[in-house]
Give the backbone structure.
Amino acid sequence: MLSFRCDARYAALVTGVRARVRAELTAEIKAIARRQIAEDGPANINLRAIARELGMVSSAIYRYFASRDELLTALLVDAYNDLGEITERADAAVAEVDPTDVEGRFVAVATAAYAWARAEPNQYLLLFGTPVPGYSAPTDTVAPATRFTSVLLRILDEAGRLGARPVVVPAVPPGVPDDLQRVRDLTATAASDELMLAGMQVWTALFGAISFILNGQFRNVIGDVDAMFAEFARMLARQVFPHESDARR
Amino acid sequence: MLSFRCDARYAALVTGVRARVRAELTAEIKAIARRQIAEDGPANINLRAIARELGMVSSAIYRYFASRDELLTALLVDAYNDLGEITERADAAVAEVDPTDVEGRFVAVATAAYAWARAEPNQYLLLFGTPVPGYSAPTDTVAPATRFTSVLLRILDEAGRLGARPVVVPAVPPGVPDDLQRVRDLTATAASDELMLAGMQVWTALFGAISFILNGQFRNVIGDVDAMFAEFARMLARQVFPHESDARR
DNA sequence: ACCGAAACGAGAGCACTGCTCTTGCTTTCT
DNA sequence: AGAAAGCAAGAGCAGTGCTCTCGTTTCGGT
């Protein structure tokens, strides 16, 4: 969404008008689909409705996306990139002031992710809700999906450099260290097994909290869910990144 | 699923054969739908396929469930009851040995919930995945949904009696105490605001971990996700129920 | 024991979906 | 300039949830 205009202009220079209108139409299809998702949920994108809105016949859509799943994949990639970019910025904003403020960086990232999820609940659900049945995300989705996790891993890396240890020190199960080493190699980070495991626990907790709030599990229970989430984020940060004077277990 | 045979027999005594075959057919429809959900996910139950399998015509199904959503609701209630019953049993098994072993009780409940989710991933997703769009769970689903949370609340209640405080003590946001008091009144429990808030955070974390594992977010990253979850459960328990000798923050 | 009322299954049908295939037309490449 | 590729349109297929009507079967009150 952020870059299709550039794509279109680029295409116009390199190739002819056909390529340009193709890029524009592709972007329009995606835009309408995104709106459909926002309104009716990820499961309810409707190719025929998109075609109708564009004044086309439904079969024409298939020139641009081979199937409904392919359209979904494109939107998935965009959503991962949006979330990745937003959290990268949130982290950078704190890190450029004080890169060692790992608690602040985590809270900023969590808050940014939450704000995005609240603003675009159905896009969030597209990423972290029930996977569409029979649909397995192709390999081109993994790179954008990694962006967000990379942000967290960099914070963990910095925390490791500072000698932080989680409040509740995990007992690393056998076999897991090899998996974690592979992650370290791939991401060029160096946090300890304990820190990474705690980080992953907090990562799942973060998305659990967002999902619960989004799915309305706290409806009629907690009024100010935003305030509750803010406190959850602070607690999570403290659980992985205690001040060094604190006792741990 | 656990009780439809009894329902059928009961109906046979109280009313005639028509009521019995109705109860049996209702149960059969639900059983087939449950199998469909297990195979193809919650979004893909198919009334016509159910009718075909029963040798009926599709319109006949509507004598038993007024719509697809109503069928879904019935399955939702069953799933909530299954999860509630399983976790109640897991808690009771530990509690009858030592009711004050709140950490053990929590781990038992978490483990049981995870085992159920792994065995019936799509049923779990029916409860905690993306809500079906345009579908708002009617009021008859809230009672069974409360069963599981009640288990957690009773553990928190016991922990409060023992004087436990979470490792990271939450700063209770303004407004939230009123909400929590309402929960205490409704459930006849008496845990402190801090303990309840920490409990809710851990509750969301628990489901976040299960959802992440179920959705395959750790695929190609962590091999032994079961072991990882077991450790997560232990960490979560420790975060809310530290041993009283431990320092807290 | 009977008879009106209610419940039921079958069947046809409606509006809708994703998707395919063919048919002409237009842009692009050589 | 002509072949090749890209394109929109239209018809059509198989499938869905759901509605309505029509005989038949069962139930409940008299």
About this structure: Residues 15-18, 46-48, 58-59, 62, 67-68 of chain A lie near DNA strand C (CB under 10 Å from a C1'). Confidence is low (pLDDT under 50) at residues 1-12 of chain A.
